[in-house]
Amino acid sequence: MKRFSSIIIVFFLLVSCQTQRVQKTEASKEYDNAAVITAHPLASSVGVDILKKGGNAIDAAIAVKFALAVVYPNAGNIGGGGFLIYRGKDGEKAALDFREKAPALAHRDMYLDSAGNAITRLSLDGHLATGVPGTVAGMQEAHKKYGSLSWQELLAPAIELANTGFKITALQAKEFNNYQKRFKQFSTPGAAIIRDQPWKEGDLFTQTHLANTLGLIAKNGRDGFYKGSVADDIVAEMKRGKGLISHDDLENYQAIWRKPIVGDYKNYTIISMPPSSSGGAALLALLQSVEQYPLSQWGFQSDSTIRAMVEAERRIYADRATHLGDPDFYDVPIEYLTNKKLNQERMSKVSLEKATPSSAVSAAKFPGYESEETTHFSIVDKDGNAVSLTTTLNGSYGSGVWVDGAGFLLNNEMDDFSAKPGSPNIYGLLGGKANSIQPGKRMLSAMTPTIIEEDGKLKMVIGTPGGSTIITSVFQGILNTLEFGMSAQESVSAPRFHHQWQPDRIDVETGALSDDIRKSLIEDGYTIHKRGSIGRMENIIILPNGKRQAGADPRGDDTAAGF
Fold first, then answer.
1. N or C terminus of the chain with fewer C-beta within 10 Å?
2. What 8-state DSSP symbol labels residue 197?
3. Which of 14-18, 81-85, 430-434 has the highest mean pLDDT?
4. Is residue 356 annotated as a catalytic residue, yes or no?
C-alpha cells in the first residue's frame, strides 16, 4: 500500500510538472467579447474583422471559410466539403451537412480490379478520386439561415487575399515544395502553386484565377460555382483526367440541415455532428463509455485512464465500421449507438487488467440491423452565438488536381467510401455495406465539430482535423478540460494518443504516455506505435466571468484572435 501511494504521488508530480510546462510556454489567450481560432493567422484576422463590423458567428465562419480557401490550400477549400455545428445565443442548435457526394456515374466496384481487389490509389490520386464539392452550397445555406452581413461583404477579404497575395509561412513553403511532383502529375502547368524554383518562407503567393472564381461566387452565390464558367472549368477538368463529375452533378448538389447529435456527459450537454459524419455518434458513445470511471481521480494519461479510453475506442470504432453511413441511403441506428445504458453495460464487461485483442472485438449487434489533412475553426461572437466547423479535401492538397482556369484544388473524398468491405482506406479505417459507393451518396466522415453546454449555458467550442484520429482527439480535448481541469491552451497542446480498433495498436505522439506507463501497457498485451503529431485542435472555453479563453494548437500555424 505504501508503494502504491508513492507511485500515485510521483504520478501527480509528473502531471503537475507537465501542466506547469504547458502553462509556462503557451498561455491561453482571453478575450472579453469574441474569439476566433483557425489554422492560419490571416484567416483568424478576417474572422475578427467581420465580428468587429457587427457580423455574427455565422458571418465570421463564412468569411473565414473562403479566406482559408486562399491562404490554406491544403485543406481550406471550395473544392471540398465539411460540417458545421451552430448554437445560438438563445440555445438554438443546428447541424449543416455540406459533405461531398459521389457523382451520378459512380458505382460500387469502381475501385476494384478484375479479381475484385481494391486498387487503393484510384480513390486517392487524380480526377477519379473526386466527389462533388459542397463548400459553396453549404456556406450559402448558412448565410441564408443565419447571416446578417451581405454575402459580398463576407467574400471580399478572400478575394483581396487571392488578388494581392500573401506571404507563405515556413511550414507552407515546405509543403508546397514537397507536393510539387504530385501537382505536376495531376494538374496543368498553369496552377498557381507550381513553379520550378523552390518556395521559401515569405514568398508572395497570388492566385488570380481563384480571385476571379470567388468574384463570381460573390456576385451569383452558389450559381457562380455550380453553373456558368466555373462549372464548365470543373467539367472540362474532369474530361481531361477521366473524372466523373458532370454539369448535372454540380447543379443537383444540395447542402442539408440535419438534427444534431445531442446527449449528456455528467452535467454537460454534448452537441455534435450526425451522419453522414460518424463523429458525433462516436464521440458521445465514447464519453458515455468512460463516464462511469473516476477519470479525474485517476489523472491525465494515467495507466488506468489510458486503458479505459483505449478499450472504449476499440469498441466504438468497431461499431463505426459496421453501422455508420449516409442516413439518406442507410438506416443508421443512432438511438442504439448513443444509448448510454448499452455503452456502459458493454464496458462493464471489459477488464482493464489485460488488453482485449481487436480480433476478439466486433461491432455491437442491434435489433434489425465506418487526411489526416482537414482543418477546423471555432468561433464565439460577442452575443454568445457559436460555430464549430470542420472542413476537408481529405488527403493533404486533396486529389492533387487544380482546376485549370478556376484556380482551386479538388478533393479526393471518394477514398472515404468503402471500396470493398474489409479493405482499409488511407487512414486504415474499415467499412462495409453502410458506407459502400452509390451515386449521389455522401461518404462517411470522422469530422467531429462539437459545442458543449454546462447547465444550459455555452461552455466549449472544439474540433480538430486528423482523419481517423479526429474523434479520439476531440474526445481527449474534452476530457482534458472537463475532467483534468486544463485551460483551453493546455487542452490542445497536451500530447495525444489514438486507437481505432484496426490496426490493433495505440498510436502515440512524442511526449504522450510516460515510459513506465508504456512498459505497463506492453506487458499487458497492448501494442504501442510511435507516430508524428495528431491533429490541430482549436478550443474556446467560456469562463465563469464570461471571457472567451482560446487555445490554438501549436502543431501548426494555428492562431487565436479576438477582442
1. N
2. S
3. 81-85
4. no
